[in-house]
UniProtKB/TrEMBL annotation, chains A, B:
The gene is Extl2. SUPFAM superfamilies: Nucleotide-diphospho-sugar transferases. Signal peptide: none annotated. Its cofactor is Mn(2+). It comes from Serilophus lunatus (silver-breasted broadbill). Gene3D superfamilies: Spore Coat Polysaccharide Biosynthesis Protein SpsA, Chain A (3.90.550.10). The keyword Membrane applies. This is Exostosin-like 2.
Amino acid sequence: RYFHFCKLPGRVMGIRLLRFTSVVIIVLLLVAGALTALLPNIKDDKLPNLRREPKPQSQSALDSFTLIMQTYNRTDLLLKLLNHYQAIPHLHKVIVVWNNIGEKTPEEMWNSLGPHPVPVVFKVQSVNRMRNRLQNFPELETKAVLMMDDDTLVSAHDLAFAFSVWQQFPEHIVGFVPRKHISTPSGVYSYGSFELQNPGFGNGDQYSMVLIGAAFFHSGYLEDFQRQPEAVYALIDETQNCDDIAMNFLVAKHTGKPSGVFVKPVDIRNLEKDTNSGYSGMWHRAEHLLQRSYCVNKLVNIYDGMPLKYSNIMISQFGFPNYANHKNKM
Amino acid sequence: RYFHFCKLPGRVMGIRLLRFTSVVIIVLLLVAGALTALLPNIKDDKLPNLRREPKPQSQSALDSFTLIMQTYNRTDLLLKLLNHYQAIPHLHKVIVVWNNIGEKTPEEMWNSLGPHPVPVVFKVQSVNRMRNRLQNFPELETKAVLMMDDDTLVSAHDLAFAFSVWQQFPEHIVGFVPRKHISTPSGVYSYGSFELQNPGFGNGDQYSMVLIGAAFFHSGYLEDFQRQPEAVYALIDETQNCDDIAMNFLVAKHTGKPSGVFVKPVDIRNLEKDTNSGYSGMWHRAEHLLQRSYCVNKLVNIYDGMPLKYSNIMISQFGFPNYANHKNKM
């Protein structure tokens, strides 16, 4: 908020009033300064390589996150989820990416049901594209983005913990849905989950991607996404799929490490069966998984190599929900 | 293995034989060079601050660890555990710290039962001190130390995974036994585990120490330990306890972060009831836990502040032992 100065000539107002105004201003500045000193320490931004244009750094911009939720044909689920997500701790703002082309947003109804804990912005799109959610939105003020699908409910506890984990791994995609690729003797890659063969690095399974439909990542990656080869956008538009695989390629290439850190969710639910719209989501299409394998191979061509790396680190919250969930036989 | 050269004068052997020998040597060198090119990449050492004197950097020194096991009055357990631990993947060498003063080590018997997978060194001590295991042993060639109590059995799977985790967090104590301190309104600290009140940073519990009796840490910390205030050694000697708490203080002070990373063990067992010696370990002494709270407060005095920091990160292995241990309701 900016203070308006009434620029009245000093001679008219009088020196006395000028002096009084100056004193008030000085006192207010001192109070503001004292309040600032009481704020908790700002955490360092550990990502000098992400070239985000410098914005005024408010305290909340570093210790909070922006929820970006794209929505298509499931406004009932969207509103149900917004009621939940608007109250998550450390949430700064919600950006709803409105893919219902030509349809009015529920902004009027939203405002009539205020006040709300945080601002919610409805971004009307001109074309229904999967990659609309990966724009570098000017409304985005925080370093962290939480991206959620419009049919996914994750508990506040999970989100608060995962956000704290992201703050310790800010260059990674920190989220709840792990996936992997495997290579085959022919050199062709396949995409999948636990049902696929383990990649064969010792015991157990590995993951090489964390899906962005339920994850935290650095907002700088949205900026980086705008600078990818055209073929990437063409691929995502052709399939209306794979934007998340592309983001994992981008992050892995940037860091030279596994793109994601998997946080095991305590309570994550898919609400798509609860929708009145009858629309059940892209992943039900028959060709969905085949498309994703196709995308992995195309992206390897586009990026001239396979940048994804494997990880087998699974993070849970110590002592939650069971206060002794780390107990062992010792 | 080194090749012995027979240094016979050329005139006696003949120029032809010399030439043949040279060709053989060159071919062998080329083969060795080709094999080296097939070896996996050496991981970078990420700890420039730990001032360890440069030793010849062999491949194994970076990708393997040294087991340091101190033993007192439980030789039967020691030998049972050595049979297990000598075969752990990535183990470079074992250093047994022999605290049985005046008693012969089992070295003869050990050698008679060879060959063994790795070298085992018995370090005879002159005084039975808890902190004997924290010496900067000249036999130590690896960056990583695995320290185990002589009554603790951890599965090879757990150790292989925890070692890979340590390689990603080399400045932390990566281990299987988390503990915490809590502060009280009086300013006096208390030491304990899950039975103590949560420190109160959001949901769930926190830990601020990882005990070194079942953990990996960087060998540079042994060097740092030699440079601590005399009062630290006096405290450990006075209590015959708390060397692990002191190490956590040291690491936390060095990194400014939580000292430990907790890896949840799948299979960890305490074998002390299996010993024939009747000796049941220091932690059964009535004053054991009180001593440890005492140590926390003394160390805060010695270090002029509380350097320990809390963490609630609990790491497990993705897809092991249950190949779909990350599955959720989605």
